[in-house]
Amino acid sequence: MITIDQVSKSYGKKQVIKNVSLSIPEGSCFGLVGPNGAGKSTLLKLITMILSADHGEITIAGESTKRNSAKIKQQLGYVPQEICLEETLTVEDNLKFFSQVYNVPSSIQKERIDHVLKTIQLEDRKKTIVKQLSGGMQRRLNIGCTLLHDPLLLIMDEPTVGVDPNSRNEIYNVVKTLIKSNKTVIYSSHYMEEIEKLCDLVCFLNQGEVIDMNSPQTIKQKNTTKAVEVSIKTSDLKHFQHLGEPKESKNGYVFPSDDPLRLIHQLTATMKEHRIDVHHLQMVTPSLEDIYLQKTGQSLSEEGQS
Ligand SMILES: Nc1ncnc2c1ncn2[C@@H]1O[C@H](COP(=O)(O)OP(=O)(O)OP(=O)(O)O)[C@@H](O)[C@H]1O
Hints:
By secondary structure, this protein is an alpha/beta fold. The chain folds into two domains: 2-215, 3-Layer(aba) Sandwich (Rossmann fold), CATH 3.40.50; 225-284, Alpha-Beta Plaits, CATH 3.30.70. It is built from eleven helices and 14 strands. It has helices at 40-47, 69-73, 91-101, 106-119, 135-144, 165-180, 192-198, 216-222, 260-273, 288-296, 300-303, and strands at 2-11, 14-24, 29-33, 55-60, 63-64, 76-79, 153-157, 184-189, 201-206, 209-214, 226-230, 247-249, 252-257, 281-284. The chain has a six-stranded mixed sheet, with helices on both faces. It has a four-stranded antiparallel sheet with strand order 2-1-4-5. Strands 12-13-11-14 form a four-stranded antiparallel sheet, covered by helices on one side. The two termini are 32 Å apart. The mean pLDDT is 89. Bound molecules: adenosine-5'-triphosphate.
């Protein structure tokens, strides 16, 4: 569906997309992950042709963005990071307005609006003024406005930023409905749990470069570095310094290791030596978030609180 071939982009002297190549199959949900400033929005703006690449080529459904932009735009829905709605109008009037923006023929406008209201689960809110909607509902309407021309490709730039967990689940449901109806979705996020729930493919972007791209399962299998979680107290940590730098976890501390069995022997020996009781000791596999941290030295979640 989409091929990005050796694409680079600079703002002034600063190169923010560096020779990126990737391809996104039709009907897939493609997750773009990276901390603030990784280049996610810039890459999405290149795909949506808001920006043009300095080098390289982007092809969507066989058409080059350089040559056939008008044709591609008909198949493309872009959900920007910022909510872009007229808040003094009702839900329905916003949808009517965006139908006109997207040149939806008036003969099918009502049918399209009804279908979109169902998809975004706002059928009972169509007469509500936008500013009276919750943040999560506004985000769903923001998505709905990009569905009116029935695009094949949807590009969503952090659609759950600033949304509470319940509303986030409702947005996931909308995205899942879109994936089931065979749309291709590109979904950028700081939240790794979203990517794991929704995406068939995940691309880790860091400082404008693709550092890994695969299914979430394959990335986890490839990065088999294991770790051991142990329930020790912070005051006892000094006895374990020779076993590396642990990370605090829900049940105590997690020690990374390429040889977890050996580490378990070392941990138990140290506990015995210092007479430390242990209630919990288990091998753990890293989450996608941990893998990103290992690869970049940067945490997504800390950066992702904005
Ligand atoms: N119009 C612009 N002019 C100059 N620099 C820009 C511009 N837009 C973005 N940048 C810079 O380019 C880099 C990549 O920004 P981009 O917004 O693409 O990252 P991002 O991964 O989407 O980050 P965030 O999660 O914060 O939205 C950042 O260093 C940013 O400051």
